[in-house]
Predict the 3D structure of the following.
Amino acid sequence: MEKKRRNQLDQERHKNKREKESDMEKKRRNQLDQERHKNKREKESDMEKKRRNQLDQERLKRKREKASDMEKKGRSLLERERLKRKREKESYMEKKRINQLDQERLKRKREKASDMEKKDRSLLERERLKRKREKESDMEKKRRNQLDQERLKRKREKESETEKKRKQIIDKSLHAETRHPKSIDKANKQFLKEIQKSPDYTCTVCHRMMYNENVIQFRPSSFRNSDLADFCRTHLKTVSDKEWLCTTCQRHLRKGSTPPQAQVNKMALPEQPSIVDELTDFEARLVAKRIPFMKITALPRGKQQGIIGSVVNVPSDVDETCKFCQELQYRLVSSLSN
Protein backbone atom coordinates (compact mmCIF):
# COMPACT_ATOMS: atom_id res chain seq x y z
CA MET A 1 0.00 0.00 0.00
CA GLU A 2 2.85 2.38 0.87
CA LYS A 3 4.59 1.56 -2.46
CA LYS A 4 1.39 2.16 -4.38
CA ARG A 5 0.82 5.48 -2.57
CA ARG A 6 4.40 6.54 -3.20
CA ASN A 7 4.08 5.73 -6.93
CA GLN A 8 0.91 7.80 -7.17
CA LEU A 9 2.63 10.74 -5.47
CA ASP A 10 5.61 10.43 -7.81
CA GLN A 11 3.32 10.40 -10.88
CA GLU A 12 1.42 13.48 -9.65
CA ARG A 13 4.67 15.36 -8.90
CA HIS A 14 6.06 14.37 -12.31
CA LYS A 15 2.82 15.52 -13.99
CA ASN A 16 2.90 18.90 -12.20
CA LYS A 17 6.52 19.34 -13.16
CA ARG A 18 5.75 18.71 -16.85
CA GLU A 19 2.85 21.15 -16.83
CA LYS A 20 5.19 23.91 -15.61
CA GLU A 21 7.72 23.25 -18.35
CA SER A 22 8.17 25.71 -21.21
CA ASP A 23 7.89 24.72 -24.90
CA MET A 24 11.70 24.63 -25.27
CA GLU A 25 12.08 22.38 -22.23
CA LYS A 26 9.33 20.04 -23.53
CA LYS A 27 11.01 19.84 -26.92
CA ARG A 28 14.43 19.16 -25.35
CA ARG A 29 12.94 16.49 -23.05
CA ASN A 30 11.24 14.75 -25.98
CA GLN A 31 14.50 14.68 -27.92
CA LEU A 32 16.31 13.17 -24.91
CA ASP A 33 13.55 10.55 -24.50
CA GLN A 34 13.79 9.59 -28.17
CA GLU A 35 17.58 9.27 -28.04
CA ARG A 36 17.42 7.21 -24.84
CA HIS A 37 14.71 5.01 -26.39
CA LYS A 38 16.80 4.60 -29.55
CA ASN A 39 19.92 3.64 -27.59
CA LYS A 40 17.92 1.17 -25.56
CA ARG A 41 16.55 -0.50 -28.74
CA GLU A 42 20.00 -0.74 -30.32
CA LYS A 43 21.23 -2.72 -27.32
CA GLU A 44 18.33 -5.17 -27.50
CA SER A 45 18.87 -8.72 -28.73
CA ASP A 46 16.83 -10.33 -31.52
CA MET A 47 14.65 -12.22 -29.05
CA GLU A 48 13.93 -9.02 -27.07
CA LYS A 49 13.06 -7.13 -30.29
CA LYS A 50 10.73 -9.92 -31.36
CA ARG A 51 9.06 -10.01 -27.96
CA ARG A 52 8.70 -6.19 -27.88
CA ASN A 53 7.11 -6.20 -31.36
CA GLN A 54 4.62 -8.85 -30.26
CA LEU A 55 3.70 -6.85 -27.16
CA ASP A 56 3.30 -3.67 -29.24
CA GLN A 57 1.04 -5.48 -31.71
CA GLU A 58 -1.10 -6.95 -28.91
CA ARG A 59 -1.38 -3.57 -27.21
CA LEU A 60 -2.34 -1.92 -30.52
CA LYS A 61 -4.89 -4.68 -31.19
CA ARG A 62 -6.52 -4.17 -27.76
CA LYS A 63 -6.55 -0.43 -28.29
CA ARG A 64 -8.25 -0.80 -31.69
CA GLU A 65 -10.87 -3.22 -30.32
CA LYS A 66 -11.83 -0.69 -27.64
CA ALA A 67 -12.05 2.16 -30.16
CA SER A 68 -15.48 3.41 -31.26
CA ASP A 69 -16.71 3.56 -34.87
CA MET A 70 -15.87 7.26 -35.15
CA GLU A 71 -12.34 6.69 -33.84
CA LYS A 72 -11.85 3.79 -36.28
CA LYS A 73 -13.05 5.95 -39.16
CA GLY A 74 -10.80 8.83 -38.14
CA ARG A 75 -7.80 6.51 -37.75
CA SER A 76 -8.37 4.97 -41.20
CA LEU A 77 -8.55 8.47 -42.74
CA LEU A 78 -5.33 9.51 -40.99
CA GLU A 79 -3.58 6.35 -42.17
CA ARG A 80 -4.68 6.98 -45.76
CA GLU A 81 -3.46 10.60 -45.64
CA ARG A 82 -0.14 9.51 -44.12
CA LEU A 83 0.28 6.82 -46.78
CA LYS A 84 -0.64 9.34 -49.50
CA ARG A 85 1.96 11.87 -48.24
CA LYS A 86 4.54 9.10 -48.00
CA ARG A 87 3.90 7.94 -51.57
CA GLU A 88 4.08 11.51 -52.91
CA LYS A 89 7.62 11.83 -51.53
CA GLU A 90 8.72 8.54 -53.08
CA SER A 91 10.93 8.48 -56.14
CA TYR A 92 10.08 6.57 -59.34
CA MET A 93 12.29 3.60 -58.38
CA GLU A 94 10.77 3.39 -54.89
CA LYS A 95 7.25 3.45 -56.35
CA LYS A 96 8.17 0.70 -58.79
CA ARG A 97 9.69 -1.40 -55.99
CA ILE A 98 6.63 -0.92 -53.74
CA ASN A 99 4.29 -1.93 -56.59
CA GLN A 100 6.31 -5.09 -57.17
CA LEU A 101 6.20 -5.95 -53.45
CA ASP A 102 2.42 -5.33 -53.39
CA GLN A 103 1.92 -7.59 -56.40
CA GLU A 104 4.04 -10.37 -54.86
CA ARG A 105 2.15 -10.12 -51.55
CA LEU A 106 -1.19 -10.21 -53.40
CA LYS A 107 0.01 -13.21 -55.42
CA ARG A 108 1.01 -15.12 -52.27
CA LYS A 109 -2.32 -14.24 -50.66
CA ARG A 110 -4.25 -15.53 -53.70
CA GLU A 111 -2.25 -18.74 -53.80
CA LYS A 112 -3.16 -19.47 -50.16
CA ALA A 113 -6.87 -18.76 -50.79
CA SER A 114 -9.31 -21.66 -51.01
CA ASP A 115 -11.44 -22.49 -54.07
CA MET A 116 -14.53 -20.85 -52.56
CA GLU A 117 -12.61 -17.66 -51.75
CA LYS A 118 -11.20 -17.56 -55.30
CA LYS A 119 -14.69 -18.02 -56.75
CA ASP A 120 -16.16 -15.28 -54.53
CA ARG A 121 -13.30 -12.92 -55.37
CA SER A 122 -13.71 -13.50 -59.12
CA LEU A 123 -17.47 -12.83 -58.84
CA LEU A 124 -16.85 -9.59 -56.91
CA GLU A 125 -14.26 -8.46 -59.46
CA ARG A 126 -16.67 -9.14 -62.34
CA GLU A 127 -19.47 -7.19 -60.64
CA ARG A 128 -17.13 -4.29 -59.87
CA LEU A 129 -15.88 -4.25 -63.47
CA LYS A 130 -19.46 -4.45 -64.76
CA ARG A 131 -20.55 -1.47 -62.59
CA LYS A 132 -17.48 0.47 -63.69
CA ARG A 133 -18.19 -0.18 -67.38
CA GLU A 134 -21.86 0.78 -67.01
CA LYS A 135 -20.80 4.22 -65.73
CA GLU A 136 -18.44 4.78 -68.67
CA SER A 137 -19.34 7.29 -71.38
CA ASP A 138 -19.21 6.49 -75.10
CA MET A 139 -15.83 8.20 -75.46
CA GLU A 140 -14.37 6.22 -72.54
CA LYS A 141 -15.69 2.94 -74.00
CA LYS A 142 -14.20 3.78 -77.38
CA ARG A 143 -10.85 4.68 -75.80
CA ARG A 144 -10.82 1.48 -73.70
CA ASN A 145 -11.52 -0.65 -76.78
CA GLN A 146 -8.69 1.09 -78.65
CA LEU A 147 -6.27 0.48 -75.75
CA ASP A 148 -7.31 -3.19 -75.58
CA GLN A 149 -6.73 -3.61 -79.30
CA GLU A 150 -3.32 -1.91 -79.13
CA ARG A 151 -2.27 -4.04 -76.16
CA LEU A 152 -3.36 -7.20 -77.97
CA LYS A 153 -1.52 -6.07 -81.10
CA ARG A 154 1.72 -5.42 -79.15
CA LYS A 155 1.38 -8.78 -77.43
CA ARG A 156 1.01 -10.56 -80.78
CA GLU A 157 3.94 -8.66 -82.29
CA LYS A 158 6.19 -9.82 -79.45
CA GLU A 159 5.28 -13.46 -80.06
CA SER A 160 7.87 -15.49 -81.88
CA GLU A 161 7.13 -17.63 -84.92
CA THR A 162 7.30 -20.78 -82.76
CA GLU A 163 4.65 -19.45 -80.35
CA LYS A 164 2.39 -18.41 -83.25
CA LYS A 165 2.73 -21.84 -84.82
CA ARG A 166 2.04 -23.50 -81.46
CA LYS A 167 -1.12 -21.39 -80.97
CA GLN A 168 -2.34 -22.25 -84.46
CA ILE A 169 -1.89 -25.97 -83.75
CA ILE A 170 -3.78 -25.65 -80.42
CA ASP A 171 -6.61 -23.71 -82.09
CA LYS A 172 -6.91 -26.31 -84.86
CA SER A 173 -6.97 -29.18 -82.35
CA LEU A 174 -9.63 -27.41 -80.24
CA HIS A 175 -11.72 -26.71 -83.34
CA ALA A 176 -11.42 -30.35 -84.46
CA GLU A 177 -12.30 -31.58 -80.96
CA THR A 178 -15.35 -29.30 -80.91
CA ARG A 179 -16.55 -30.38 -84.35
CA HIS A 180 -15.72 -34.08 -83.94
CA PRO A 181 -15.48 -35.06 -80.22
CA LYS A 182 -13.61 -38.29 -79.54
CA SER A 183 -15.31 -39.29 -76.29
CA ILE A 184 -19.00 -40.19 -75.95
CA ASP A 185 -19.57 -37.77 -73.04
CA LYS A 186 -18.20 -34.81 -74.99
CA ALA A 187 -20.23 -35.78 -78.05
CA ASN A 188 -23.42 -35.95 -75.96
CA LYS A 189 -22.71 -32.57 -74.36
CA GLN A 190 -21.99 -31.04 -77.76
CA PHE A 191 -25.19 -32.53 -79.20
CA LEU A 192 -27.34 -31.27 -76.30
CA LYS A 193 -25.77 -27.84 -76.64
CA GLU A 194 -26.38 -27.69 -80.40
CA ILE A 195 -30.04 -28.78 -80.26
CA GLN A 196 -30.81 -25.98 -77.81
CA LYS A 197 -30.16 -23.46 -80.57
CA SER A 198 -33.03 -22.26 -82.71
CA PRO A 199 -33.35 -19.96 -85.77
CA ASP A 200 -34.18 -16.85 -83.74
CA TYR A 201 -32.22 -14.41 -85.93
CA THR A 202 -34.38 -12.81 -88.65
CA CYS A 203 -32.69 -11.13 -91.60
CA THR A 204 -33.69 -7.48 -91.93
CA VAL A 205 -33.58 -7.72 -95.75
CA CYS A 206 -35.26 -11.05 -96.63
CA HIS A 207 -37.06 -11.82 -93.30
CA ARG A 208 -35.74 -15.41 -93.28
CA MET A 209 -35.18 -17.00 -89.87
CA MET A 210 -31.54 -18.07 -89.51
CA TYR A 211 -29.11 -19.49 -86.95
CA ASN A 212 -26.43 -17.43 -85.26
CA GLU A 213 -23.69 -18.88 -87.49
CA ASN A 214 -25.41 -17.63 -90.66
CA VAL A 215 -25.98 -13.97 -89.73
CA ILE A 216 -23.97 -10.84 -88.92
CA GLN A 217 -24.99 -7.53 -87.39
CA PHE A 218 -26.31 -5.14 -90.04
CA ARG A 219 -24.12 -2.04 -90.56
CA PRO A 220 -24.84 0.04 -93.72
CA SER A 221 -21.44 1.75 -93.48
CA SER A 222 -19.67 -1.56 -94.18
CA PHE A 223 -20.95 -1.59 -97.78
CA ARG A 224 -19.64 0.50 -100.66
CA ASN A 225 -23.16 1.33 -101.83
CA SER A 226 -24.70 2.32 -98.50
CA ASP A 227 -27.78 3.82 -100.21
CA LEU A 228 -28.72 0.39 -101.60
CA ALA A 229 -28.28 -1.19 -98.15
CA ASP A 230 -30.53 1.47 -96.59
CA PHE A 231 -33.10 0.90 -99.37
CA CYS A 232 -33.18 -2.89 -98.79
CA ARG A 233 -33.34 -2.86 -95.00
CA THR A 234 -36.71 -3.04 -93.23
CA HIS A 235 -35.50 -1.96 -89.74
CA LEU A 236 -36.59 -5.31 -88.29
CA LYS A 237 -34.92 -5.98 -84.89
CA THR A 238 -34.94 -9.40 -83.23
CA VAL A 239 -32.25 -10.80 -80.89
CA SER A 240 -30.62 -8.26 -78.52
CA ASP A 241 -32.77 -5.55 -80.14
CA LYS A 242 -30.42 -5.42 -83.17
CA GLU A 243 -30.74 -5.72 -86.93
CA TRP A 244 -29.23 -8.88 -88.43
CA LEU A 245 -28.21 -9.70 -91.99
CA CYS A 246 -27.89 -13.19 -93.49
CA THR A 247 -24.72 -14.13 -95.40
CA THR A 248 -26.63 -14.54 -98.70
CA CYS A 249 -27.99 -10.98 -98.64
CA GLN A 250 -24.59 -9.72 -97.47
CA ARG A 251 -22.91 -11.28 -100.52
CA HIS A 252 -25.36 -9.63 -102.94
CA LEU A 253 -25.13 -6.23 -101.24
CA ARG A 254 -21.33 -6.30 -101.41
CA LYS A 255 -21.59 -6.90 -105.15
CA GLY A 256 -23.87 -3.84 -105.38
CA SER A 257 -27.01 -5.76 -106.39
CA THR A 258 -30.40 -6.21 -104.73
CA PRO A 259 -30.76 -9.64 -103.04
CA PRO A 260 -33.25 -11.83 -104.97
CA GLN A 261 -35.21 -12.71 -101.81
CA ALA A 262 -35.33 -9.14 -100.44
CA GLN A 263 -38.67 -7.87 -99.19
CA VAL A 264 -38.34 -4.75 -101.37
CA ASN A 265 -38.04 -7.07 -104.42
CA LYS A 266 -41.79 -7.82 -104.14
CA MET A 267 -41.05 -10.96 -102.10
CA ALA A 268 -43.00 -9.92 -99.01
CA LEU A 269 -45.71 -12.31 -97.84
CA PRO A 270 -49.21 -10.85 -97.40
CA GLU A 271 -50.61 -10.59 -93.90
CA GLN A 272 -52.71 -13.57 -92.86
CA PRO A 273 -56.35 -12.69 -92.03
CA SER A 274 -57.41 -13.34 -88.46
CA ILE A 275 -60.29 -15.57 -89.61
CA VAL A 276 -57.82 -18.19 -90.89
CA ASP A 277 -56.79 -18.98 -87.30
CA GLU A 278 -60.39 -19.99 -86.52
CA LEU A 279 -60.61 -22.54 -89.39
CA THR A 280 -60.18 -26.27 -88.83
CA ASP A 281 -57.62 -28.31 -90.83
CA PHE A 282 -60.36 -29.57 -93.20
CA GLU A 283 -61.75 -26.07 -93.79
CA ALA A 284 -58.25 -24.70 -94.39
CA ARG A 285 -57.63 -27.37 -97.04
CA LEU A 286 -60.91 -26.52 -98.78
CA VAL A 287 -60.12 -22.82 -99.17
CA ALA A 288 -56.41 -23.33 -99.98
CA LYS A 289 -55.44 -21.99 -103.41
CA ARG A 290 -52.65 -24.56 -103.79
CA ILE A 291 -52.42 -28.11 -102.44
CA PRO A 292 -48.81 -29.35 -102.09
CA PHE A 293 -48.00 -33.02 -102.75
CA MET A 294 -44.72 -34.49 -101.52
CA LYS A 295 -43.23 -37.89 -100.76
CA ILE A 296 -42.15 -38.16 -97.08
CA THR A 297 -40.18 -41.25 -96.03
CA ALA A 298 -38.16 -42.35 -93.01
CA LEU A 299 -34.46 -41.57 -93.33
CA PRO A 300 -31.97 -44.46 -92.92
CA ARG A 301 -30.30 -42.90 -89.86
CA GLY A 302 -31.70 -41.05 -86.89
CA LYS A 303 -35.31 -42.22 -87.43
CA GLN A 304 -36.15 -38.81 -88.85
CA GLN A 305 -38.39 -38.06 -91.82
CA GLY A 306 -37.37 -36.37 -95.06
CA ILE A 307 -38.79 -35.35 -98.44
CA ILE A 308 -37.71 -37.46 -101.42
CA GLY A 309 -38.27 -36.21 -104.92
CA SER A 310 -39.86 -33.01 -106.07
CA VAL A 311 -42.74 -31.13 -104.44
CA VAL A 312 -45.81 -30.65 -106.67
CA ASN A 313 -48.12 -27.67 -106.10
CA VAL A 314 -51.59 -28.40 -107.54
CA PRO A 315 -53.69 -25.26 -108.04
CA SER A 316 -57.24 -25.36 -106.71
CA ASP A 317 -60.24 -23.33 -107.87
CA VAL A 318 -61.64 -21.93 -104.61
CA ASP A 319 -64.70 -20.38 -106.31
CA GLU A 320 -65.76 -23.75 -107.69
CA THR A 321 -65.28 -25.34 -104.25
CA CYS A 322 -67.40 -22.68 -102.57
CA LYS A 323 -70.13 -23.08 -105.26
CA PHE A 324 -70.17 -26.85 -104.76
CA CYS A 325 -70.40 -26.42 -100.96
CA GLN A 326 -73.40 -24.08 -101.36
CA GLU A 327 -75.15 -26.58 -103.67
CA LEU A 328 -74.41 -29.40 -101.23
CA GLN A 329 -75.82 -27.32 -98.35
CA TYR A 330 -79.01 -26.59 -100.39
CA ARG A 331 -79.49 -30.29 -101.21
CA LEU A 332 -79.06 -31.31 -97.56
CA VAL A 333 -81.54 -28.68 -96.35
CA SER A 334 -84.10 -29.67 -99.01
CA SER A 335 -83.74 -33.40 -98.23
CA LEU A 336 -84.23 -32.77 -94.52
CA SER A 337 -87.30 -30.59 -95.11
CA ASN A 338 -88.91 -33.34 -97.26
In short: The first strand starts at residue 201 and ends at 202. Residues 46-66 form the longest helix (21 residues). Residues 274-337 form one domain. The chain has a mean pLDDT of 82.
